[in-house]
Structures are given as structure tokens and as C-alpha cells.
Amino acid sequence: MTLAIMQPYFLPYIGYMQLLNAVDTFVFYDDVAFINRGWINRNRLLANGRELLFTIPLKDASQNRLINEITLSDEPKWRDKLLRTIEQSYRKAPQFAEVMPMTERIIRFQGDTRSDVSVADYCFHSFSELTAYLGITTRLVASSAIYENSHLKAQERILDICRQEGAERYINPIGGTELYKPEPFAQLGCELRFIQPRPVAYPQLGTADFVPWLSILDILMNNTPAATMELLLDFDLIGERAKE
Length: 244
Known about the structure:
The protein has nine helices and ten strands. By secondary structure, the protein is of the alpha/beta class. The chain has one domain (2-238). Strands 7-2-1-8-9-10 form a six-stranded mixed sheet, with helices on both faces. It has a two-stranded antiparallel sheet with strand order 3-4. Strand 3 and strand 4 (50-55) form a beta hairpin. It starts with a strand and ends in a 6-residue tail after the last strand.
């Protein structure tokens, strides 16, 4: 079984989706500290030929709180505003009619109306919609739901999740090459690999010069599900085996 663990991001770039699609089980690391000005609640679209940063507003966001403790803003108009921005930016895109209904379900999601929805649950729901649309069968799990190991830190917690899941391969984003070494994983019978997205390009609405690494929403608006799935395979797995 192949496993990956990542903080939940909202409508992330293609590399995140490549990692999710490459594994059997994907763990959303939602009971770790929130990162201000990270990618948990924001990403980039293409508007009028230029990249546009959008942000999901949060209440009392702080790096002293866990991701699953932070809830969405009560401000009533931000969902409508974001949906208008997306519609204005992509209404002429070839897949707009197919993708916009899913996009609206994602952005209007409010969870259990008896309580505030956390940014972790909001992201989790968005991935449920995205994987269903693309036909991705990866099992999605929140780290806060089952592992009961929040007392562990850093690599020890990652290793414990691998152990509990019986993972035979753990794939991490390429940025983790300085953080993780293969030997501790090998002791669990688990192979460590790092995913390296290749530069991708596709016909992009509204610009002659391709703008890379935008939200997956830009890819979906410009490509069929089948073409998107081909792009999700455009990566390399790298890493050395553990030393004998």
C-alpha cells in the first residue's frame, strides 16, 4: 500500500493532485499548526490573462492553533464574490459548463449547519468533489480522525501513521528531501520516495503566455477529465534506497 500525508490545501496546484492520485491512501494532516500566508486557504486563478490570488477568509486564524480548530469567516458575501470572480474569469473556458456546478458545490459547502465549518472540513469536502469528478479512487483520511498520535512530533508521527496503515511505500513532496531519510522508513518495511512534478502546459484561456502552477481549477476549466488525468501522471518519483 502506498501512502502520502499532506496538510489540507484548498483547490491546490497540480503537484498536490499528482501526489494524491499516486497513492492508495492520502492523509490530510489537519491536526497540526496552521501556517499563516500558506496555501491552506488560498490559491491562484487566471483572470484577464494574469494570475490572481484568492483567499478563503477565516476566523481567528493563528499559527498557535491547529488547522482543524480554525473555522471559516461568518462574513456572508465572500462565497458569492469568489464565485463571481471564477465565473467572470472562466465563463468562456471549454469545460466551464461541466466544472462550474462542482465549483459552486465546493465553495457553498457549509457542513453541519448547527456549527461552524472548519477550514480542514472545507478542504476535505473539496477533495471529495474533485476526486469524484475525476474518478480518482484514492482513500481520503483526516489525521485527526483515527491515528491518536498527536503527542508524536515531526518524522516520528509520520512513521507511526505509516506503521498503522501498513504502508509499503511513502511518497513525500520533493521539498522533503532534507527532512526525511530512507533508513527509518526501511526499518518499517516502507520505501521512501519523493514526487517531482514535471513542467506541464495546456491550452489556457485568455493568455498567449502560459502561466504555470495555478489552482487545479484552471486545469479543470481548460481540460476534460481524461486530459486532466493524463497531466496528473506527468511526474517523476525519486529517492535513494536505504543504506545497507
